[in-house]
Amino acid sequence: MDKSTFEERQTIAGPMHSELRHDSAHKHVAGTADYIDDIPEPAGTLHGALGLTDRAHAEITDMDLSTAAALPGVVCVLTAKDMPHSNDISPTHLHDEPVLADGRVQFHGQPAFAVIAETRDIARRAARLAKITYRDLPHMIDVADAMAGGGELVTPPLTLQRGDAEGELERAPRRLKGRMRIGGQEHFYLEGHIALAVPGEDDEMAVWVSTQHPSEVQHMVAQVLGVPSNAVTVNVRRMGGGFGGKETQGNQFAALAAVAARKLRRAVKFRPDRDDDMTATGKRHDFLVDYDVGFDEDGQILAVHATYAARCGFSADLSGPVTDRALFHADNAYFYPHVKLTSQPLKTNTVSNTAFRGFGGPQGMVGCERIIEEVAYALGKDPLEIRKLNFYGDGNSGRNITPYHQTIEDNIIRQIVDELETSADYQARRAAIIDFNRSSRVIRKGIALTPVKFGISFTLTHLNQAGALVHVYNDGSVHLNHGGTEMGQGLYTKVAQVLADSFQIDIGRVKITATTTGKVPNTSATAASSGSDLNGMAAFDAARQIKERLVAFAAERWQTTAENVTFVPNHVKIGEELVPFAEFIGQAYAARVQLSAAGFYKTPKIHWDRSAGRGTPFYYFAYGAAVSEVSIDTLTGEYLVDRVDVLHDVGRSLNPAIDLGQIEGGFVQGMGWLTTEELWWDEKGRLRTHAPSTYKIPLASDRPKIFNVRLAEWSENAEKTIGRSKAVGEPPLMLPISVLEALSMAVASIADYRECPRLDTPATPERILMAVERLRGR
Amino acid sequence: MAQASDSIRFILNDREVALSDVAPTDTLLDFLRLERRLTGTKEGCAEGDCGACTVLVGRLTGNSESLVYETVNACIRFVGSLNATHAVTVEHLAASDGTLHPVQQAMIDFHGSQCGFCTPGIVMSLYGLWLTKDNPSRAAIEKALQGNLCRCTGYEPIIRAAEAAAKERPSAVFDPITRTRETVAARLKALRATETIVIGKGEDCLIVPADTAGLATVLAEHPAATIVAGATDVGLWVTKQMRPINPAVFINGIAELQKIESSEAGLTIGAGVSYTAAFEALVAYPTFGALLDRIGGEQVRNMGTIGGNIANGSPIGDSPPPLIALGATVTLRSKDGTRPLPLEDFFIAYGKQDRRPGEFLESIFVPALPAGDRFAAYKVTKRRDEDISALLGAFRISLEGDRVKTARIAFGGMAATPKRAKAVEAALLGQPWTEDTVRSAQTAFETDFQPIDDWRATSAYRMLAAKNLLMRFFLESIGEEAQLQRFEDVA
Questions:
Q1: pLDDT at residue A233 above 60?
Q2: What is the pLDDT of residue B488?
Q3: Active site residue A576
Q4: How many angstroms separate the CA atoms of A387 and A385, rounded?
Q5: Which domains does chain B have, with CATH numbers?
Q6: Torsion angles phi and psi, residue A631, rounded to 5
Q7: Which of A103, A726, A758, B46 has its Cβ near the most Cβ atoms within 10 Å?
Q8: Of A713, A730, A755, A773, which residue is the catalytic one?
């Protein structure tokens, strides 16, 4: 019996709630973390490139690929007709998304063929040698085009309704209508899409792909090849960023690689160039929001009627749930006594828009905060005053029902906002800024405090399930696998902490392994911020099962009761005896105890009736708030973000270091979306911002000059989540709405804050200057 | 020792490499990843904008013969341009016992990586900074990171890591470059070509001339050759447009083109002087230094040259407008001699410059700013750093009494070439230097320019901002604060 180790160290390394570094951090900095393009290629690997079309909407009347096929080094050229079983990769099974365009081009850059060659360079060159003849058809590029063109939808819209919004608007003492344009966003994961397919025996296909959704890739590859899912194994150790852009968008590359691999019996890799990646894969939806708000002289909102129209692109992809989630967040943290919200998922001749961190929620919330701003400027009040007046109330207030009829039971937005308002010294700084603006001719400042309330759960209820597979080997080392994917968010680290904590062993004993459909089946995408909630619980469940068997074994072997068997740091304590974990496991193995378990978890309580627009789609809410201060140059519209203070709720953090990173990173990414990141299509429907030279995500020098981020350490999830933590992936992305509003205030100073500047997004220097010009002289 | 003339020889980490089978378009990144399987260096964009491919390249500078290491984008750095250099990748940083470099360790300790894909590039950029600055300010750190995109962290932890690493200065044993500096310098000296290197046959070749005379000879033989200096533009012709560039003539190693000479009359800048190297000289002209700091990222500034920025004829190059406003002239050289030309006359039309077959740009002469002249250049972009100008205005005026005596104003992004605003100049000349004069001169921009709409800005914005930049120039001349500054101190 070894007591020394235990006495020296009473805790394990890497328990839950500790500031553990990312599990791959050492490999990241050393350059030894393998991404898919870094894995040694099987001998004879071929390379694919997409053949892109250059019409927004057209019939293909002829496609001459002979020159491409004849280029030395080209092995074959694939078209839609080469798909062995199906040319369809529609993730929602609406059959509206072909692998390769078949006779009809629906967006500029849609792939119509693929070249497979001995090298990537040859494949890329050959892909430009096709002669495609088109018969042009009329195209619709943006939301306004689509509305004017009849408003065809890619998927059924949603309406959320409570009370009598139209009637109350008529009766309201004050009423305002407006429109806001909210831009889309390119994910700009640093690692672009990539897939490597390696054919196996019989109908087997192994695929390595940078995806957030291995199970869906598995199903899509199986569907395209015409084989059962059990023939396809999808693997991914890590992604170089995902942000939603790898939820469905990897399917195409995996399917093409697999089709070529099947046909040629050789390994095939697809790694599109950055420009092709940005051209041919979907982005965050841009929205046109029409709002109509009724309110009283105090600023109390009485009714809201809003329509959220989205540019979905040529197919549905995830546009249904994305536009639904926009409506679910069109209230943000505010109670609307009477409300009617409608989505319009519009079809356009652009790339099919897809998931992106927040999944429509951010657009819903930006529209909502515009409404608040409008009310505040109309009444000449600080928008924060209007916000506080309209916050959801607590249990007995009668003001805690959402537009989708869910009762909010965990509301902490007032605590968050009050604490931040004080700690960031909001009132004094606002007064100083108003003072500064009186005397400053060119430079103007603005400040804003905006809240976030974000619903956690997939709104398609059945997706809220997860599995894990845990093995304890007879040397006491532990193998961890689960259905979640690692894209940098630290999921693998957090779940390993859960397992280390459950067994009370140092995290170094837990081997984190790549996600694979062969170990955990039927997984949901790592999305909706759900990764650690779902997979952490599944791993916890697997550990529970193994521990129950171990406890039963110990009770029998040591002739004691189960209550006397406990897992203590790196040991098992049986009565008064401490047995080192490895030794104990060796004994359990010898006694033929099953040391492996498949864990499972499904989120309780939630349900959603979409057709009725009623239910409890969210298990709980995550909250946060930010104060941002900016300066603008009224001669050019250029601006700086001078200071940001954030207070954010992650419940009881599983890993405060990782959570802080998610908040800081999410903030800057959301700030980029609302400021410098602009997608620009020309009149032909061609996206011209398809590379980092033209599409500008934030740099180090764009981040807030002073950036104070704190966790609401007092918060604990009211629901029984893993360690009472909360999801953190998406909610912080909406904190920088405060930057947008601060910019807006700086602009509003031009007309003495009498008019809402109605700043659309992204608020580029151009939009700022043009807003300044609109307000001059008013 | 006789220098072989048919191979590119350089040092990669701790090995000497001699390559005799190099295509003009072969990039350092592909060489590292595909040939050497050094996969720590990543491809993020293949156009020098994201920095995931950042490596250090050490070279002996001009006459001083000192060994400097600079960050570069391996994705657009051609192998043919590497002769007599030392390429250092992320794999070279840790000690042989696996001990990480302080920069790497700080990135771990401060949680500076999330997805990790940009991380090797960030580590290399921070390492480049660590080598040159003991106690970098936040401004200096941000400048070092201008060419590195991170989509996960929001940068804050990376900045903290850079600050912490700066304090860690263990013995040279831990630092691979410090440790080998002298031996590497000696080896690079030996690798320097004394005659022209030619790899390939006929027009399908790459050529590395040893000096300007060699360059003139080569261009006389191959008048259609692509002259490649920093490759920050030509690199994209290859990686994005897949254009052939053969015969390619790599001139980045020619010491004569990297000279900067200063006299009372002004500055003579060799066409091969990088933005980074030009900074020290051009910083003497007010705002020019700050402007240079907003061209590309550090990697691009280390590779890209003032000469290339002129010779490629782009209407949105950042150095021509201020140089035109300063009255710069260029010298073109061929086998037959040299030809001086006012810079503004070099630009004929979009994509058309006054460079004759066999000619190359040798140097740029920038007259000294006469005492009393006021000069400023303003760049306007969507994103402040590492962005291409929506427009760029350069202003120079002198007063006689309170009246405008001379005015030279030039803009980029407003026309098909960098162009003077002659109507605006005329509207100012002889007028009192007052806000009223400026207001009435603003309308003259409409005579000078009809800018276009594109993804960087609309025509309306360009016009309005151009007018307002003149107002900014005026307001600053009377001491008003009319421009935002993130940091007081310049990096």
A1: yes
A2: 78
A3: no
A4: 5
A5: 8-91+179-250 (3.10.20.30), 102-174 (1.10.150.120), 256-367 (3.30.465.10), 374-477 (3.30.390.50)
A6: -125, 140
A7: A726
A8: A730
